[in-house]
């Protein structure tokens, strides 16, 4: 009788141990080995990371080559943007508040975004010039899907918002 209970607990122990090791492995794999390619550009349709995600591994080396060619400029813009955000924070924290300081900082931010967007567009032009006609058609088809989903999501949000206003 006692041996039967011991075997049952032994099975439960091994199942629990297996689940803990499995979940721990998933956690470690997710933390250290996930693919973060283009994470910062995931919402930007018609960008090289988006196109690489859409077309898959067949264009991986081309996308990497294009990104490597423009990597320094993008990093320089990102560093400058961090400093601009600090300036915006400082302008917001100033006592007394000076509107012109905040306006200047926000204008700098707008310029920085414009430079980054221009770089992303030139990268996409360089990338697209090396694609086949079929690959470019697949990009257009996927972009149409993305924009349709975004439009539907925007309409659902608008309906929810209008329903809340009525209530």
Put the structure in a nutshell.
This protein is mainly alpha-helical and 167 residues long.
Question: How would you characterize this protein structure?
Answer:
The structure is a single chain. The chain has 2 domains: 34 residues; 129 residues. α2 crosses α3 and α3 packs antiparallel against α4. The longest helix has 34 residues. About 3% of the residues have low confidence. Helices cover 83% and strands 0% of the residues. It has 167 residues and is an all-alpha fold.
Key descriptive features of the protein:
167 residues, mainly alpha, 0% strand
| Amino-to-carboxy terminus distance | 65 Å
DSSP, total strands: 0
| Class based on secondary structure composition and strand pairing | mainly alpha
- Provide the succession of SSEs: HHHHH
How much of the sequence lies in strands comes to: under 5%
The average pLDDT score comes to 84
Structure annotation, total helices:
5
The biggest beta sheet reads: none
Q: What global shape is seen?
A: extended
Number of self-contained structural domains:
2
| Residues in helices, as a percent range | over 70%
Q: Uncertain segments of ≥5 residues (pLDDT<50)? A: 36-40
Radius of gyration: 25 Å
